[in-house]
Amino acid sequence: MDRLLTERRLQRVETSDESVAALLESAGRHLDLARSGGAVDPEGAFALAYDAARKAATAVLARQGLRPTSRGGHLVVVDAMRAQFPDVAGLSSLDRLRRRRNQAEYPDPRSYDPVVGPEVEDALLVAATCLASATRLVAERELGVF
């Protein structure tokens, strides 16, 4: 984590219950919307499920007084979760969702591979698990400020 701060991929911020709650609530709304749209727009539902998982993980960082920078982007959220919570359900699958979402958002023109229903179902499960794990972690005051 110190390396991520030194590299300015993460920055220290004041933590607040309001910002943590807002991130978790936003993650929940994204997850609800993803659940309702998978049949109509699998790629959109997948992206929303990923965003739900990422925001839930970002809430954990916010509880610790940390925030991703533009230099760190989405990848630093993955790296921070991997460093701190490698075996926590949902959080450990965040990178897999990130990679697939990037593949769908920025496809190789020679081998377009659209997101399909089973992938959406998996992403929804991962995102729901990530949200549940993040909610539990932020409720544990033992996390403290980094």
Note down, in words, how this protein is organized.
- Helices cover 65% and strands 4% of the residues.
- It is mainly α and 146 residues long.
- The chain has a single domain, classed as Up-down Bundle (Four Helix Bundle (Hemerythrin (Met), subunit A)).
- The chain has a two-stranded antiparallel ribbon.
- It is globular, with a radius of gyration of 15 Å.
Task: For the structure shown, list the relevant keywords.
single chain; 146 residues; mainly alpha; Four Helix Bundle (Hemerythrin (Met), subunit A); two-stranded antiparallel sheet; 2 strands
Quick synopsis:
The chain is mostly helical.
Describe how the helices and strands are arranged.
Blueprint: H1 2-6, E1 10-12, H2 17-37, H3 42-63, E2 66-68, H4 73-84, H5 94-105, H6 117-139
Antiparallel strand pairs: 1-2
